[in-house]
Design goal:
Number of helices: 17
Distance between the termini: 167 Å
Helix content: 25-40%
Oligomer: single chain
Number of strands: 25
């Protein structure tokens, strides 16, 4: 009986051993045959390309893109014994207070420690992430759902980009501003106004960086013949013709003059008359591109091209040039001033200063409405209309900005009317912007050829190669002899007429004043825009300059508002060595001695 029991036990034990062995073989077979989730021997990294910068003529970065990163950690994988070490090191590298980090780590699972880590700091934190793994601050954990073992450390991930403006309000609103767009969890910036919008295609990033290849135990790419890298291609940088040093001085001057004249806005532009390069383009009304407030909304438009207005007497120069070019007037013809009052149809035209008779050129020098109204009758409606078009009015002035309001000019039928012809000749019934005036007046300072205002000088690619933007073709608007005569008349206007306060010894200065009522809701109101447009030259340089003062409270006259602004611009150009007065010093006489 005992022998049978013993045999039975041995059989059962043998059966269990065989069964266990078969079960082991079965498990091993299943594990061998079923697809396994082995960790990849390869890894890849990506890095977003960035938007191009806007750079001044003197090499300063006015607008740049900064990458932002977020720091993510899964608290489940932090070794509790080394949590204090993690907090201390991360605080040092990120400059985030330890208490703030400790508070965030009280959350369980995936925690975002910071959303706005600058690029340079992110590089340091990536190095820290590597060191934390090496120091075994993070430990492997088994996922209770999948049963798989994994390890997750500190992750520094690109989260987006931010547009930075190192000089705050400088060059706004010309430079414009961007807005944020989110795409696949990444925040980009895109231009909305100004240069940021006009050159969106050139500025935006072209190709992100991609690196892939075999990995080490910490999942870092091993760079060898099996790895692959695709270089990032950032957006093109845009280099302007405007230097920061000059722009800062002009903007400060405008701020002071706006306060002194109690004006709604003052805007100015300076352009090289020979090639159209813009040296400065400024407004007293500016904003911070990154912190736009509701009160800034009126300032977001580039008034130099988006504010159209009736220009007043600065158009007299254009009308007179057309007459002179067609041989319809001689500068020495005598014009009846009608003692300051002249009636055409049911409209009476008046002059601020009354004249009996004056020469045709003095109609411009002393800005006679009565005189130019009579002279303009010599132009046909078709010639007047085409002449205004030839001088660039009712057309886009510059290719470098967007949303330009091109204004309007009377049509041929309107200009066949004596009244329309008269009022348009002294700047009413026509709407222009500052840059159109600058472009038109360049004709008188460039042998009758009109240049196109050019704000952007070149593009710069990833390899620092500069791609120059060719100048627009110059248009011959009037004969060189006509332009020279008009130039002489504008110089005489400064020396003897309405622009005497702009004279600067040793420079060739010419220009024309303009004052015009403002139209609001279809009616002229008792407020004014004033203007002075002209040029300032030395022996080597020629600049076309314009100044517009909107709604000055101190005075309604251009001679007391726009003229002082114009002169201050010239003084800044002299101080910054853009203009060099040719002043001949008189030799000192020897002392008279007693014999």
């Amino acid at each position: 009986m005992k022998s049978q029991n013993k045999s039975k036990k041995i059989f059962i034990l043998y059966t269990l051993l065989v069964g266990g062995f078969l079960l082991f073989l079965a498990v091993m077979l299943i594990n061998t045959l079923k697809p396994r989730d082995l960790p990849s021997l390869y890894t890849k990294n990506t890095s977003k390309a960035t938007r191009g910068s806007i750079i001044s003529a003197d090499g300063f970065h006015i607008a740049t893109t900064v990458k932002l990163y977020k720091a993510i950690v899964n608290t489940y994988y932090i070794d509790s014994k080394k949590a204090d070490l993690f907090v201390k090191l991360f605080s040092i590298y990120s400059e985030i207070p330890s208490k703030e980090i400790e508070k965030k780590l009280r959350q369980k699972g995936v925690v975002v420690l910071s959303y706005n880590i600058p690029q340079k700091q992110a590089q340091y934190l990536k190095q820290l992430a590597y060191e934390l793994r090496r120091l075994k601050v993070f430990i492997e954990r088994k996922n209770p759902v999948t049963g798989k073992t994994s390890l997750h450390g500190l992750s520094i991930i690109e989260s987006g980009e931010s547009r930075e403006y190192a000089y705050n309000k400088l060059l706004t609103p010309i430079i414009g501003y961007p807005h944020k767009v989110e795409e696949d969890g990444y925040t980009y910036v895109k231009g909305v106004k100004g240069l940021e919008k006009k050159f969106e295609n050139e500025l935006q990033a072209k190709q992100d960086e991609l690196s892939q290849g075999p990995r080490d135990v910490n999942s870092y790419i091993l760079l060898n013949k099996s790895s692959f890298t695709k270089q990032e291609i950032n957006g093109l940088d845009i280099k302007l013709n405007i230097p920061v040093s000059l722009q800062i001085r002009v903007e400060k001057m405008l701020d002071a003059m706006q306060e002194d004249l109690r004006a709604k806005e003052i805007m100015v532009a300076v352009m090289d008359s020979s090639n159209g390069k813009i040296l400065t383009m400024a407004s007293s009304n500016r904003f911070l591109p990154r912190e736009i407030k509701t009160s800034d909304y009126p300032y977001l438009n580039s008034s130099m091209i988006e504010y159209s207005f009736e220009p007043g007497s600065v158009i007299k120069t254009i009308a007179f040039a057309l007459l002179l070019d067609k041989g319809l007037v001689n500068p020495y013809d005598m014009i009846n001033g009608h003692n300051g009052r002249y009636t055409i149809g049911n409209k009476t035209i008046t002059d601020e200063h009354r004249f009996d008779f004056l020469s045709a050129e003095n109609v411009i020098v002393f800005s006679s409405n009565v005189g130019i109204a009579q002279l303009a009758q010599k132009l046909s409606g078709g010639d007047f209309n085409q002449g205004l078009i030839d001088f660039g009015f009712s057309k886009v002035s510059t290719p470098d900005l967007i949303y330009e309001r091109v204004g309007s000019i009377p049509n041929v039928m309107q200009l066949n009317s004596e009244i329309y012809k008269a009022t348009c000749s002294y700047g009413y019934g026509i709407r222009v912007n500052l840059m159109q005036l600058i472009r038109a007046y360049s004709v008188f300072n460039n042998n009758g050829r009109m240049v196109t205002p050019q704000i952007v000088n070149s593009f710069i690619d990833n390899y620092k190669r500069e791609i120059l933007i060719p100048n627009e073709e110059q248009i011959q608007v009037i004969k060189p002899t006509t332009a020279q005569r008009m130039k002489d008349i504008l110089i005489k206007t400064v020396n003897e007429g309405t622009g005497t306060k702009t004279k600067i010894q040793g420079l060739e200065v010419g220009g024309k004043t303009g004052t015009a009522h403002i139209v609001e809701e279809g009616k002229y109101v008792n407020e004014y825009n004033t203007a002075f447009v002209g040029f300032a030259n030395d022996e080597k340089s020629r600049y076309t300059i314009g100044a517009i003062v909107i709604k000055p409270k101190k005075s309604q006259f251009a001679a007391q508002t726009a003229v002082p602004v114009f002169k201050k611009i010239i003084e800044i150009l002299v101080e910054e060595s853009y203009l060099k007065p040719n002043i001949i010093e008189q030799p000192s006489l020897p002392d008279a001695g007693l014999n």
